[in-house]
Each structure stands twice: as C-alpha cells, then as structure tokens.
C-alpha cells in the first residue's frame, strides 16, 4: 500500500506518507495493473543479456542459493566476489564439454621420476640383499640429517630420503668404494646435489686418452711452424718474445685436490653426472671470480679473467676449494698411517694419507665446543699454485732437456719458491679469521638438554659449511650458494697492462716524405753524377777502343 | 610465515638447507601464541633469524588490523623471551647502511664508524653523540631494509578495502602453476614506489583492490630473483639474490605462502658481478 515510496530512513520523504495518507491513496490500486507491474518487473529481470546470455533473475536466484547453502560470514562484505564466482562457474560448465583430456602438468612427470626411485631395480634377488647388508658404501643420510637437524640445518625429511635413494641408485651403477652426501649447492635455475665418491682401486675409467690426443696435436702444430719458418727466413716476421707461463699439470686422480670424484644431479631422480677432475689453472681462476651457478652443467662462465672451462669445471673447482677449507673431524679420529719410508722420499711435502684410528676416544660435547683445537682438518689445503702438493713447473725430465738445451736456457725466469701449506690434520685453532671474526663458530645444539647435545661447527669463511660431532659420529656438509665470505666487496681483476708494441728502430720508423726542393736538389745532383759517369765511360771506351786497335 | 602454519611452512622452505631445530620449533609454537596474547596482535609472523658470530637473533613480527601498517618487530636470543624493537627511522637505516661485516650476536655491542663524512662527524660531535651505533639499531634497520626490498606476497593475497586498510583476501585460492612461475604475480609488501610511474594504459588494466603494490618484474638488477619448482614441482620457491637467505614459498592453487629469512643479515652487493 506504500506504493514505491521511500523505504530507507535517510531517503527524503520517509515517514511522511503513512498508510492511508499517501498522495496516491485516493487511487484505488487496480489489482490487475499491480499484477501487470509485477509481471513487467519479472519480465525485465528475465531479459537475457545480449553479451553473455545470462539473465538477472537466474543469476540472483543462483547467488542467493549459493549464499544460503554456504552461509559465509559477513556475506554482505563479499557479495561482489560471490556474484563473480557464480558467473565464473557458469562459464566453466560450458567449457567442460570441450575439454576431453586432462591437463598433463609437469608435476606429474616429476612425480613419476620420484616414484621410480622407490621401485626396486629388476633382478635384485634375496642373495644380493644379504651381501648388501654387510658392508655397503651407502651413507646413512637420514642419520646424518637427524644430527644436523638438531642444529636447524638440513633439508626437509622428504628430500633427504629421496637423496638417500638416489645415492643408492648411483652405487648400484658405478663401482664405488666409499660414498658420502657432500651437500647441496643452490643455483639460479636449478640446484645441484653433490655426492663425494671414491672408486674401488683399479676400477677407475681411463680418461687419459683425451689428454694424450691434445698433446700430440700441439706437438704437430709446432713442427709445422718450424717448417714455415725455414722457408721464410728471408722475410722473417718479427717473432713474439711472449712465452706463456708454463701450464701446471693437474694432480693425479686419487691424490690431492682430485682425491675424490664428485657426482652431481639437479634433483634426486635425475641421472647422476660425473664432474671432470680439477686443474690448478681452474682453481687459481676460481679464486678470482664470483659467479652464481645456473644449474646447467654446460653453461659457459663469462668472466674476467676468463675461466678455463664451463660451469661443470667451475663447480668442481668450488667444491675442491670448499672441501679443502672445511672438511674437519674431531682430533684423534684420523691418524697418520705408520709408514716405513722417510719423509725425504715425498720431497718434504708432508704426509698426505691418513687412516681411521681404531683407538679413537671421543671427547665430550663441552670440550668439542669449548675450544677449536679439538677439531682438525682432514681435507688437504690447496696451495696458491692450485695444487695440494707443490710442483716446480720448470723441472724437466731428462729427454726434454736434451732437446731444448739451446732455446730454453737463455730465458729461464726466476725460480719459483716452493710453496708450503699447512700440513694435514692441523687443528682448527690455527685457522685465520677474517678481520675480527674467527674462522669457525662452535656451539652445542641445545643448552636445555646437555646430555644429548650435539657439537656443531659453522664455518664463517665458507658460509654454509657445517660439521657436527656426537660421540664417535661426525660428518661435514655444505648447503649454500658455493661462494667464500668476504666482508669487502668483490673487486674484479683489472685487465692486463697494454703490451709493448714492436720496438721502434730505423727500419720500422716512418721518415718524413722529402719536400719538392729536396727532390729537385737530389735530381740535379743525380744528373751531375750521371753526366760525370758518362764522361768517364767515354774515356774508357776510347781507351778500350784504342787497346783493341792495338791488338 | 604465519605462526600457525610454522611446521608445514618450514618443511616447504627447507630447500636451502636452513631451518630450525626441533627444540626451537617446539618453543616457537608456544611463545608466538603468547606474543599474540600479550601485544594483542591479530597476526604473528615468524620473520626468520639473523645469524651473528656469537649468537642468533630470532625475529617475529606482529600485525594489527591494517596489514600494511608498520609492523611491530620483536627479537629474541632463545625464542622464549622476546623484546620489542624500536620502530625504524630513515636516519637509522642510513647509518646502518655504512656498516659492513657480520652481526656479533650481542644486542648491546657498539660499532665504531670507520668512514664518515666530515660533515656527519661534526654534526654528531655537536649533538654530543659519539659516532657509535648499537647492534640493536643495526638489527632494526636491517630488518626494515629486508622487508622493504624483498618481503613479497602473491598477487591477490591481500585486498585494499575502500577505506584504505589492507586485509587478507578471503577469496584468494592461490596462484595457478603458470602464474606462479612469473615474477609479475608477486608483489613487494611495502609502500609502492613504481606504481605511479606506470603508463595510463598499464594502469587501466590494474585492479585497484588487488594491484596496489609494486610487482617484482621491474626489480633492479634484473635476475635478482630465482624462481624454482621444488618437491617435484609442487612448491614454487623464490629466493632473493640481493639478500641471500630470503626464501619465499607458495603451493600453487592453495592458500599456503610465506617468506622467511635465514641468513647473516648482509646485503649481497656483489650481485651485478655474480649474475
């Protein structure tokens, strides 16, 4: 009976028109026209939209149904979103008939690979199982992860288990004697999971063939050059006096920086790739550059000084540096083997092999944490040269000396001094700190329960390198980006000084072109000389003729 | 990361090898709740930890009804007792930027200035202050810098109400897998800087309720974020290369997301050389 009067208190005219007193009251509402008005309103609401084909009536009905079904809190605040969701749902239904296939997400493929890890390999009978349980090179990754977790270090349990299974797969494929989970290095596109491995004696793949081929190629080039030189001795091009510094040979597989072989994979489940052995040149260059890893082993390293290799070599070099600087063990765990030979045989380089001490008595956690002298390095440190054992590059074998006696003796640069690094098994208290920060931070995993605490060491020089010790167990691990810590900003190496050009001498120096006067003077002088010469000739001819006539 | 989902979140963000020990995890569950009660926060975030040489700072942030308002920050050395940090001022941030090297682990440690301009030195001497800065101030400034530079949220997770305050978006169902791999789907959760520089065409496409923050795709230098799919492609993890140690995780098509910082609190100024 109000008609369409104001309903809200704030609208003008509210309360003015009481029932029976509105201006339209004298007009008795015609029920038919009322019904017509209602029908018109409903028809309007039922009108389909020209763009979407929906109509407001159905939409409001759906929306209210949804709200009454779900009963969200504060529905009036999110009413627009609910309306949008209802419209969205409409369209989705229409699309369903078109889509026949399920989307194959890349996550499904990854899950397949993961599942493959958990399946047992074919042909594994019960007999093999018994053999394995005895002594297996498979490291107990979960146990190590447990100890590190006490300090808050480590990957999630799922990932650790996947890594354990991936290592198991690696061992079943390669002839491996010892294996260890070295750590994880993060990269831009993908990460690296690294396993440190030692082969059985004598089962190493022969990789020396490639190197021999390269050397022969170089020698062949040298011969060709000599021949060319003989031909062109007349117009010899100026020879460059630049002799590149001698290439320091890499250490043998199984010794020094190449003591262990490293396998990497991007994710557990992906195939393991073996990293090539590291050369001293790569280590020296890696010390000068600082680059993120991309995650692809064949990515080039664009840097200055130019890195001799691609990302696989850079990764191997960083792993070598990190291992040399941060592989530590409690004192007494490893001892030097009893050797019959003297130290003289090894050239004064110190001992480089160690073995486990069967009489190892572990120290208490408090002692391990209290002082750094209870830990020792069992990773051999790398000298400035890039090797663990110093090699004089100018020492020649007897054969070479005979050939090169003439050429080389003239130009031997100053002899290099032998580099000596800290010997194996030096305690950590000898490590230099950086500015006023000690090289290592030691702490117990918990102060509340000292009985079961674990001693944890963090490296400050290589952030991400950790070590734990608890009773007779210890291990090292690395989680990080693979770079050394430096409080100062990284300063890239400057380019080398400009090389001297060919020394200038009279045969190379340009002289000034002669001026016109000088040319004319020269011409006149020549003509005089020519005239004088002709006179002489005439005299001579006359003399000759006279002589001939005499005969 | 939200205090309520701490254990699950730590599992998702553990790809970098950093996390919390079971002891800390257990005590945080309780102490963060108590923080919420004592300070009347609506939300408590576990921000992460900054590793000093001799100790570790654990940081928590508390949010009020407007999620974009300046957050209260608290630190603790053992996750049990928390102390409120003073709010960060521009002056504090500017002074702390000159400091280099690791945190010591002792909040009352005083750093001496090694390089200051002559003008600053004069001004300081006039004020009667000595050119020293306490580690607490450096902590505050560092947290503020990290939040400003690399604290991120997925697009659509927060909405701006017509009254100007920012709240969680209840209709946020998570980013799809394709969206989650793009940098433009993530925003800096701080005052926008670049938003007004966008062209009118770009602004027309934005939805003012959800696109009121800067996205990551224009960060300088380009490539300062790594986007990876972990756990077989089920979690998207973003790691910042400018502040090494900041990890952001998000499970696509779910409401799980968050960021946490485990690191030494030093900016990676070598970033342009390393890319």
TrEMBL record, chain A:
Q: Where in the cell is it found?
A: Cytoplasm, Cytoskeleton, Cilium axoneme
UniProt-annotated stretches for the region Disordered: 1-20, 201-250, 338-358, 396-430, 525-551
Q: Could you tell me the gene encoding this protein?
A: Rsph4a
List all Acidic residues biased stretches: 202-215, 338-347, 398-414, 533-551
Give the top-rank taxon of the lineage listed in the UniProt record for this protein: Eukaryota
Keywords, in A-Z order: Cell projection, Cilium, Cytoplasm, Cytoskeleton
Name the residues that span the membrane.
none
Annotated GO biological processes are: axoneme assembly; cilium movement involved in cell motility
PANTHER family found in the cross-reference section = RADIAL SPOKE HEAD 6 HOMOLOG A, RADIAL SPOKEHEAD-RELATED
A GO-annotated cellular component = radial spoke
Q: Cross-referenced CDD domains, in alphabetical order?
A: DD_CrRSP4-like (cd22963)
Q: Looking at the Swiss-Prot or TrEMBL record, what is one Pfam family this protein matches?
A: Radial_spoke
* Protein name as it appears in the record: RSH4A protein
TrEMBL record, chain B:
User: Principal place where this protein is found?
Assistant: other
Keywords (A to Z) from UniProt: Cell projection, Cilium, Cilium biogenesis/degradation, Cytoplasm, Cytoskeleton, Flagellum
Location relative to the cell: Cell projection, Kinocilium; Cytoplasm, Cytoskeleton, Flagellum axoneme
The record's section on InterPro entries has: RSP9 (IPR055316)
Cellular component terms, GO, for this chain's entry? axoneme; kinocilium
Gene Ontology BP terms: axoneme assembly; cilium movement involved in cell motility; motile cilium assembly
Has UniProt tagged this entry with the keyword Transport? no
The similarity comment for this entry is: Belongs to the flagellar radial spoke RSP9 family.
The record ties this protein, via PANTHER family, to: MITOCHONDRIAL RIBOSOMAL PROTEIN S18, RADIAL SPOKE HEAD PROTEIN 9 HOMOLOG
Q: What is this protein called?
A: Radial spoke head protein 9 homolog
Q: Which species is this record about?
A: Fregetta grallaria
């Amino acid at each position: 009976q109000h008609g369409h009067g104001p309903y809200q208190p704030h609208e003008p005219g509210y309360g003015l028109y009481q029932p029976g007193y509105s201006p339209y009251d004298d007009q008795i509402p015609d029920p038919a026209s009322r019904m017509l008005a209602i029908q018109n309103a409903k028809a309007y609401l039922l009108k389909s939209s020209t763009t979407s084909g929906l109509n407001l009536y159905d939409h409001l009905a759906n929306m209210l149904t949804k709200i009454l079904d779900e009963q969200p809190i504060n529905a009036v605040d999110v009413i627009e979103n609910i309306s949008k969701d209802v419209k969205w749902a409409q369209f989705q239904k229409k699309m369903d008939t078109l889509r026949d296939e399920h989307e194959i997400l890349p996550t499904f493929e990854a899950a397949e690979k993961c599942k493959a890890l958990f399946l047992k390999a074919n042909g594994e009978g019960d007999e093999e199982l018994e053999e394995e349980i005895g002594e297996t090179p498979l490291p107990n990754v979960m146990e190590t992860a447990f100890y590190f977790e006490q300090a808050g270090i480590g990957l999630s349990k799922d990932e650790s288990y996947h890594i354990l299974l991936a290592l198991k797969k690696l061992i079943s494929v390669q002839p491996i004697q010892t294996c260890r989970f070295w750590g994880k290095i993060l990269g831009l596109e993908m990460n690296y999971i690294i396993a440190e491995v030692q082969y059985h004696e004598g089962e190493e793949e022969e990789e020396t063939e490639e190197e021999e081929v390269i050397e022969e190629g170089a020698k062949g080039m040298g011969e060709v050059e000599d021949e060319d030189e003989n031909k062109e001795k007349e117009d010899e091009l100026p020879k460059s006096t630049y002799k590149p510094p001698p290439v320091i040979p890499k250490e043998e597989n199984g010794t020094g920086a190449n003591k262990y072989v490293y396998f990497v994979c991007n994710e557990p489940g992906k195939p393991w790739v073996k990293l090539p052995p590291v050369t001293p040149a790569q280590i020296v260059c890696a010390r000068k550059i600082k680059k993120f890893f991309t995650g692809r082993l064949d990515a080039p390293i664009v840097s200055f000084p130019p890195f001799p290799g691609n990302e696989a070599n850079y990764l191997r070099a960083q792993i070598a540096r990190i291992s040399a600087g941060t592989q530590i063990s409690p004192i007494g765990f490893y001892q030097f083997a009893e050797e019959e030979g003297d130290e003289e045989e090894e050239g004064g380089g110190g001992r480089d092999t160690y073995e486990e001490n069967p009489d190892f008595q572990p120290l208490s956690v408090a002692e391990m944490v209290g002082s750094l002298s209870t830990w020792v390095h069992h990773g051999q440190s790398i000298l400035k040269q890039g090797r663990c054992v110093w090699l004089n590059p100018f020492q020649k074998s007897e054969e070479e000396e005979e050939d090169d006696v003439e050429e080389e003796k003239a130009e031997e640069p100053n002899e290099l001094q032998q580099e000596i690094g800290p010997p194996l098994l030096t305690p950590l208290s000898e490590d230099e700190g950086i500015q006023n920060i000690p090289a290592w931070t030691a702490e117990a995993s918990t102060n509340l329960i000292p009985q079961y605490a674990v001693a944890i060491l963090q490296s400050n020089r290589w952030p991400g390198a950790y070590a734990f010790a608890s009773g007779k167990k210890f291990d090292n691990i690395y989680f990080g980006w693979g770079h050394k810590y430096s409080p100062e900003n990284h300063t890239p190496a400057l380019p080398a000084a400009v090389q001297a050009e060919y020394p200038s001498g009279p045969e190379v120096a340009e002289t000034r072109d002669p001026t016109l006067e000088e040319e004319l003077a020269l011409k006149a002088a020549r003509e005089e000389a020519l005239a004088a010469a002709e006179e002489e000739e005439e005299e001579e001819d006359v003399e000759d003729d006279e002589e001939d006539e005499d005969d | 990361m939200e205090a309520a989902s701490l254990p699950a979140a730590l599992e998702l963000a553990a790809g970098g090898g950093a996390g919390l020990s079971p002891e800390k995890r257990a005590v945080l569950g309780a102490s963060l709740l108590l923080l919420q009660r004592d300070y009347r926060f609506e939300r408590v975030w576990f921000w992460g930890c900054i590793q000093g040489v001799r100790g570790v700072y654990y940081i928590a942030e508390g949010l009020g009804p407007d999620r974009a308002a300046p957050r209260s920050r608290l630190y603790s050395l053992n996750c049990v007792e928390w102390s409120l940090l003073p709010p960060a001022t521009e002056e504090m941030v500017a002074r702390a930027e000159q400091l280099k090297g690791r945190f010591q682990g002792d909040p009352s440690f005083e750093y001496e200035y090694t390089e200051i301009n002559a003008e600053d030195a004069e001004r300081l001497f006039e004020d009667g202050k000595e050119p020293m800065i306490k580690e607490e101030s450096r902590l505050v400034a560092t947290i503020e810098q990290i939040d400003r530079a690399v604290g991120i949220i997925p697009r659509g997770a927060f909405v701006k109400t017509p009254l100007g305050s920012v709240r969680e978006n209840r209709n946020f169902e998570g980013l799809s897998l394709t969206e989650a791999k793009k940098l433009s789907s993530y925003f800096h959760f701080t005052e926008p800087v670049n938003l007004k520089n966008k062209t009118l065409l770009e602004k027309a496409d934005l939805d003012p309720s959800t696109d009121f923050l800067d996205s990551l795709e224009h960060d300088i230098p380009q490539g300062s974020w790594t986007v990876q799919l972990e756990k077989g492609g089920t979690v998207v993890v973003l790691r910042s290369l400018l502040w090494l140690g900041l990890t952001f995780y998000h499970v696509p098509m779910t409401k799980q997301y968050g960021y946490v910082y485990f690191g030494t609190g030093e900016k990676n100024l070598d970033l342009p050389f390393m890319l």
